[in-house]
Amino acid sequence: MSAPRAITKAVIPAAGLGTRFLPATKAMPKEMLPVVDKPAIQYVVAEAARAGLNNVLMITGRNKRALEDHFDRVPSLEATLEAKGDMKKLGLVQDATALGDIHYVRQRDPRGLGHAVLCAKQHVGDEPFAVLLGDDLIHEDDDLLSFMIEAQKKTGGSVIALMEVDPEQISAYGCADISHVKGADYVKVEGLVEKPNAEEAPSNLAVIGRYLLHPRVFEILEHTAPGRGNEIQLTDALQELAIADGEGAGVHAVIFRGRRYDTGDKLSYLQANIALAVENDELGDSLTTWLKNFVSSL
Ligand code: UTP
Question: Which of 50, 76, 125, 208 keeps 20 to 30 A from 143, CA to CA?
Fold first, then answer.
C-alpha cells in the first residue's frame, strides 16, 4: 500500500435541528451555544487547526448567519476596541477569524449526518478528509486527532473514534463490533450499528464525533437509503465501507479515553461549562469556592 495522502481538509457538520436543546436552539444553531466564553464550535475549529486541518468546510442549515458572522471579521467592533486600547478583547474577537480558511455549504434539509457529509463532496474532491461534529467537544489536552491521523497513515481506509460507555447508554450512539490488531494501538472495525438496544449491541464502544474518511464514502453515501429515524446515517455508510474490498475499503478505530462532552445534550453541556470554567484563569478559583459551598449546602 502506498502512503495515503495527507489530510488537510476538515468538514464540520452543523446543520442539525438541535431538538434536544429547544427552545435555546429555536433561532440559533446549537453549535453557537457558549461554553464558558466561546461558542462550542470555536473549540472544534481550533482542534482542527491544531491538527493542521486549516481548510474547513462547515455544513450549515437554517439559522446559519450566526455561525458565518462569528468566524468573519467585524471591522467596526475591532476599530472600537482598538480605539479604547482594549487589546485583550481585540485579540479574543480576532481569534476566531485567524483559525483557518473557512468555507460554507448549505444542507437544505437536515436529512441526517450521512447526508450532511455528502454535501461536502464537491469541496473535498478525491482526497481523504476529516469530519468533526460541531457539537462534540474534546478537551484540548486530550489529543485524539493526531492519534487518528497516525493510525490512518498505517491503515489507509477510514479511521473512526470510539469511547466506552455504560452499556445502557449505547442506544444513544452508533456502536462498533471490533477485533484487535496485534501490536497496534488501534482496532479493526468489523461492523457498525446505529443506536442499537442494549441487548442487541455488539459492544459498549460508542462512535464519537471524529472521523477520518476515505473519499470512497461519498460513492456509498450517494446510494445509502434512509435508516434509523428516517435519516441518511453515516454509520450505515461506514458499515458498508468496513466490509467492502478494494481501494479505500476498511475501517479502523482509535479508542479514546479522554474528556469528551456532547454540547447538544443539556447535561453534558452543563458539565462542559463547569469543567472548563474550573480550569479557567479568570473564573477557576472563585467558581471552585462557590461550587464547594453550593454542593455542601445541598
Ligand atoms: P445529532 O445527532 O446531534 O442531531 O447530530 P441533531 O438533529 O443536530 O440534534 P437533536 O438530536 O435534534 O438534538 C450530530 C451532528 O450532525 C449534524 C449536527 O449539527 C451535529 O453536529 N447534523 C445532523 C447535520 O449537520 N445535518 C443533519 O441532517 C443531522
Answer: 125
